[in-house]
Specification:
31 strands; four-stranded mixed beta sheet; four-stranded antiparallel beta sheet; alpha/beta; 16% strand
């Protein structure tokens, strides 16, 4: 018995237990042994995280695909797991230690600290997983993995060692994003560009051999900088090779102010003659672009900052080399001064010597660490790198050849832009939490990379015996006695970038490097669903690693979803206070309502503007479905044994079978094409408009009438269509549909494992051949999405039934529309004249007179050769229906009202167009504000068109 009120919380708790107890989502079920596999790996959320709206969207879309394919008979593996999130997790635990006034990480030591992190992971690491379960994610939770569990760690170490052996991993001194608070290199994804109001300092660099005078422009070159403190590390000045102002100076030197070091003027196209003076200072150790300029011209790299962001000048051989006498005193004065304090003091010193030409206010983007909030420094340091350029070549070719495709396709351009300009990938991090780099250093700094310490020791002892650093006897003793080799080799303290282990996710989670049955069956995966912001950081790297180690692309399709923004289109952020918590929405409206909202708004390439009112609206949709199922139950609607909907006799029932088949096709094709919004829109329209508003309403006279064969058939058809709806809606709203299936369908088995509504028919030989080529010979009519035309509801197609019921619906709809436009009160009944009606239309009208009169609020239906004067004429499926409104409405008053509404719409259009025509407004206003004006204009244009149509109809009644 269906409860009177729909209570999402009760249903969600109950259904979660049912699914878990029945192992509904387990891959490799015995009944799917011969089925074609369908695999998705979850983008592993940070173990520190909690469900945010991006997670909710991403996992809802994945779940729709998995539930859809599971119902189509596939052996679905949705592989779950979490990422160890190096920096984030380490920060959480360090913060806990500080808040509890316990010893910090350094005082505690690496081993004890890592014990605390694992303890925290055991206590709190399942939070995000439990929240994903609340959302309804149908992962195979029995296979949950963690990027630092034993199996994945084994894969990470093997990959590092093999790539190093192949020369694709190496150590180098390059610039990295350095966080001076966390004291580690970080990835570009962990850097936030923040707009800052600062200054632009124009500095005079004296030309060597000329007497410097601030009044003599020929004695100096002007360069501009936003970071005067880094000038101490300048090793060149760049000018454009075609800039006539500097042709005679190229190759000559300037003298670095305050420091006295001579640096060369070089010609490089990086310098823009149109900006500033056309000359730029080159600081290769403190700017990524300058690093490249320096490489092109062989300029020295002089790092003048330390790990904490303080000036590091004393004992700095690179800085002190070639300095004139007396410059060391300056180094001592500024040594270990914080970079921002040093900036102020250096500018004061420059001004006192006349080296500052001018200072201008300057708003620019400054990189900040997304977790520390500290200003990020380009920092020259020794790190481990992957030769990404070499690994990228096959990954580029795979997308170009179509082995992997992006949806929407325009993201392929972004992928190619990144991959074709890829730089070496810095994979080392100065953290303790993570996969420690499997590299050991000998007493002379020689590196030994190995999968285990024992293997590294063996290599090292062999090497140093060969080099005669130790004797063969010493080598044997050290190999046998750990104490004797203590400190002989030491392990690299750094850990690997989190993205390194994540890059192996599609195959490491299946048990690689062991040759497991799961690797054989579920790799490569079918689809990856992810956000555009990690195409480079994750998608591209999975492509590189998958192709290199598995010799196959890791997934055939990459679906890129957009952002979820607030209802005005602004990006959600804590600082703006506009973050919408999905868990609050689930508490308020239910997981099904949130899921359906996200799917219904997930148009390809378009960000989602999420309003709570939309979620509430889809909660009402769930209630509508609930009440429709209660109505069916109260009217004893059930599908009898052996019922065949294709053999229904009643026109109305044949029509709903036709409409169900049509909707099934639409929903199926839309999901296959990753058009989630179209699929959701189609099922929404069918449930609300077709089934509830029309079919059930039109069926009520039969259901509430005396017993008859027509009533029996209608009861069966109401129940059959309801069951088809539950199947179609299940991927989107799994909780309510599973509950209603259990209560109303009264069949064995879960809805989650029920067959998808499209039933198999005999495939053509050509289709079977294609299936064999793609998936290998199989007896099961379980196929990849492209072969689905062999599944059909062709028997349910009934154009004649659709024409008749469609005519009734269109007629009533248009009459209702006119009544609304003309402000006709519901209590006022109007007449209807069918002008020049065909015999078929007359027969339809006779059969449906009572229904049409009741639903369209009509007093009478009559026939005439032509429409009477003063009647509003409607064209319904090619024939004229007329509403005589003379005397029913005040035509003059209605005309006045419509004129006012049209004028108001025109004013709204003009106001919006005026703003959008203002280039300054479009350029400076927030993106969401501009978009809101566009939407206002479109809404006003649509409103005006509707009003003009109503005005034209009114003229007919004059």
């Amino acid at each position: 018995m269906i409860e009177k009120n729909y209570q999402p919380a009760d249903i969600e708790t109950r259904m979660s237990v049912v699914w878990e107890d029945s192992l509904a989502f387990k891959a490799g079920r015995p009944d799917r042994r011969d089925a074609v596999p369908f695999t998705i790996v979850i983008p592993p959320p940070n173990v520190t995280g909690s469900l945010h709206m991006g997670h909710a969207l991403n996992n809802t879309l994945q779940d729709i695909l998995c539930r859809f394919e599971r119902m189509r008979g596939r052996d679905v593996l949705w592989q779950p797991g979490t990422d160890h999130a190096g920096i984030a997790t380490q920060m959480v635990v360090e913060r806990q230690l500080m808040e509890r006034q316990q010893p910090g990480r350094r005082e505690m030591g690496r081993e004890k600290f890592l014990e605390r992190v694992w303890q925290w992971k055991a206590e709190s690491g399942d939070t995000i997983i439990n929240q994903l379960k609340r959302l309804g994610a149908s992962c195979d939770w029995s296979r949950e993995r963690f990027t630092m569990d034993e199996g994945l760690s084994k894969a990470v170490i093997k990959v590092f060692v093999e790539l190093h052996r192949e020369g694709l991993i190496y150590k180098d001194k390059r610039l990295v994003n350095w966080d001076t608070k966390l004291l580690t290199a970080i990835s570009d994804l962990e850097v936030q560009q923040t707009e800052v109001k600062g200054s632009l300092w124009y500095l005079r660099y004296p030309i060597e051999g000329k007497t410097f005078s601030p009044e003599d422009p020929s004695s100096f070159v002007v360069v501009a900088t936003t970071r005067p403190e880094t000038m101490l590390g300048d090793t060149g000045v760049a000018v454009h090779p075609e800039d006539e102002r500097y042709q005679k100076l190229i190759g000559k030197n300037v003298v670095l102010p305050l420091v006295g070091r001579k640096i060369q003027i070089v010609a490089d196209e990086y310098s823009d003659p149109e900006k500033g003076s056309g000359a730029v200072k080159v600081t290769p150790a403190h700017d990524f672009n300058d690093f490249e300029v320096g490489n092109r011209h062989g300029l020295r790299r002089i790092s003048v900052l330390d790990r904490e962001g303080c000036l590091d000048l004393l004992d700095n051989e690179d800085y002190l080399r070639d300095l004139p006498e007396g410059a060391a005193q300056f180094a001592e004065e500024f040594h270990k001064v914080d970079r921002f304090a040093a900036r102020k003091r250096i500018v004061e010193r420059l001004e006192s010597f006349g080296f500052v030409e001018r200072i201008e206010p300057h708003t620019h983007m400054v990189p900040h660490g997304d977790r520390s909030g500290s200003v990020i420094e380009p920092y020259l340091t020794d790190q481990w790198y992957v030769d990404a350029k070499t690994l990228a070549r096959p990954a580029i070719a795979a997308v170009r050849s179509g082995e992997t495709t992006f949806v929407p396709k325009n993201w392929e351009k972004t992928y190619f832009d990144w991959m074709e300009n890829i730089q070496p990938w810095c994979i080392s991090r100065q953290l303790w939490w993570g996969h420690q780099i499997p590299a050991w250093y000998g007493p002379d700094g020689k590196v030994f990379v190995a999968e285990t310490e024992e293997e590294a020791v063996s290599h090292a002892l062999g090497y140093y015996v060969e080099q005669e650093v130790i004797t063969a006897e010493q080598g044997r003793e050290m190999a046998l006695d750990r104490n004797k080799r203590e400190g002989f080799i030491t392990r690299d303290e750094d850990v690997l970038d989190t993205w390194f282990s994540s890059a192996l996710w599609p195959f490491s989670t299946l048990g690689w490097p062991d040759d497991t049955p799961e690797v054989q069956r579920y790799y490569p995966t079918n689809a990856l669903v992810t956000g555009f912001d990690i195409i480079f950081f994750w998608v591209a790297r999975m492509m590189m690693m998958g192709l290199h180690f598995m010799k196959e692309v890791p997934f055939s399709t990459v679906y890129i979803h957009a952002l979820v923004r607030d209802e005005k289109g602004a990006k959600m952020s804590k600082s703006k206070g506009n973050v919408i918590d999905p868990l609050h929405l689930i508490d308020e409206y239910g997981a099904d309502a949130l899921r359906f909202t996200l799917a219904a708004m997930a148009a390809q390439g378009r960000d989602i503007k999420l309003a709570t009112s939309r979620v509430e609206g889809y909660r009402n949709f769930a209630t509508k479905l609930w009440n429709a199922c209660r109505f069916a139950e109260m009217n004893h609607c059930a599908v009898p044994e052996g019922f065949e909907p294709a053999k229904a006799k009643e026109t109305l029932n044949r029509w709903i079978a036709h409409e169900t088949a049509h909707t099934t096709r639409e929903v199926t094709e839309a999901i296959e094409a990753y058009r989630f919004n179209d699929a959701a829109g189609s099922i929404y329209r069918f449930v609300w408009n077709v089934y509830c508003d029309w079919y059930v309403e039109l069926a009520k006279p039969v259901l509430l009438g005396p017993d008859s064969p027509a009533k029996d058939e209608t009861r069966a058809m109401v129940a059959w269509a309801r069951d088809e709806i539950l199947k179609l809606l299940h991927p989107f709203m799994p909780f309510i549909t599973e509950e209603l299936w259990e209560v109303t369908a009264k069949r064995d088995g879960l809805l989650a494992l029920a067959p998808w509504p499209l039933r198999p028919v005999e495939p053509t030989p050509e289709q079977l051949a294609m299936l064999a080529v793609t998936t290998g010979p199989t007896d099961a009519l379980v196929s990849p999405a492209w072969v689905l035309p062999i599944f059909d509801h062709a028997d349910f197609a009934d154009p004649k039934a659709e024409a008749e019921i469609g005519w009734v619906i269109d007629l009533v709809t248009q009459i209702r529309s006119v009544r609304a436009e003309m402000n006709i009160a519901p209590a006022t009944l109007t007449a209807l004249v069918l002008a020049g009606a065909s015999a078929e239309t007359k027969e339809r009208a006779a059969r449906w007179t009572d229904v049409i009169k009741r639903m369209a609020r009509l007093s009478d239906i009559s026939f005439a050769d032509r429409a009477p004067d003063g009647a509003v004429q409607l064209l319904v499926r090619g024939e004229v229906a007329a509403l005589p409104l003379k005397g029913v409405i005040d035509v003059a008053a209605e005309r006045t009202r419509l004129d006012k509404e049209i004028a108001k719409a025109e004013a709204d259009i003009k106001r919006a167009e005026s703003k959008l025509a203002n280039e300054k407004f479009v350029a400076n206003a927030a993106e969401e504000v501009v978009e809101e004006e566009r939407e206002k204009r479109e809404a006003a244009l649509a409103r005006k068109a509707k009003l003009l149509e109503a005005l034209e109809r009114l003229k007919q009644a004059s």
